[in-house]
Amino acid sequence: MAVISRGFGARRRESTPDLPPGQFLTTDFPVLSAGPTPEVDTAEWEFLIRTETGDEKKWSWDELQALPQETIDTDIHCVTRWSKLGTTWRGVSLDTLFAEVETSYDFTMVHSYGGYTTNLPLEDLLDGKAWIATEFDGEPLEPEHGGPARLLVPHLYFWKSAKWVRGIVMHGDDDPGFWEQNGYHTYGDPWQEQRYW
Ligand SMILES: Nc1nc2c(c(=O)[nH]1)N[C@H]1C(S)=C(S)[C@@H](COP(=O)(O)O)O[C@H]1N2
Ligand SMILES: [Mo]
Question: What is the pLDDT of residue 15?
């Protein structure tokens, strides 16, 4: 029943156990944006979390910088099949931000400057699984990679890591975001190859 491929990809996977199925290694850093790169000035930058009561917790750039910063060493996996192993980021854990938030909703919609959205279960943003990243490889995050700040959720396909992140709105249901409305899987686990619906 099983068709065993002895092709390049199969051998690659055997020698690189960190590579999810169907992915290829890249050493450069491709840029994938659905639109133009928005100009976001840190003087006006603001990040907010809004709950079902309408309550909004807001952080300015300086307030974000004053929070505990973590270094994140992680692999990233794009649904277009490139993976990058051992990337280094710096940012604030979503656990730190959600410590100030009270909600009984289980889902989130992440919103970006420029209008991009993506949906995630709240539990995928907590327990050390997600950050607001402001540095890549020891340097301020480049605008084309989401600077000044992007979401980093490396255990899911990289479209979930919203660039130019602006806020998170709590949802009662798992409503689809931008790519999820356009054919991408609602969850996006690279190890299960949850690419498209
Ligand atoms: N705001 C925003 N975030 C986004 C995207 C986008 O188009 N807009 N593209 C997503 C996709 S599909 C991927 S693979 C990664 C790419 O990040 P990179 O350009 O830093 O490699 O960003 C994700 N976050
Ligand atoms: Mo992507």
Answer: 59
Give the Å distance between the CA of 29 and the centre of ligand 2. Answer: 12
pLDDT per residue as tens digits for the range 65-100:
999 999 999 999 999 999 999 999 999 999 999 999
Output b/e per residue, 154-186; b: 16+ Cβ within 10 A.
bbbbbbbbbbbbbbbbbbeebebbbbbeeebbe
Q: What residues make up the domain containing 171?
A: 47-192
Pocket perturbation via mutation, ligand 1, pick of 163, 166, 181, 185 by most ligand atoms within 8 A of CB? 163
- Within a domain: 122: yes
pTM tops 0.85, yes or no? yes
Domain count, the chain: 1
**Residue at 92 is within a domain:** yes
Which residue, judged by its Cα, is nearest atom 10 of ligand 1? 159
Residues β-bridged to residue 77: 83
- What is the CB < 6 Å shell around ligand 1? 29-34, 78, 112, 114, 116, 145-146, 158-159, 161-164
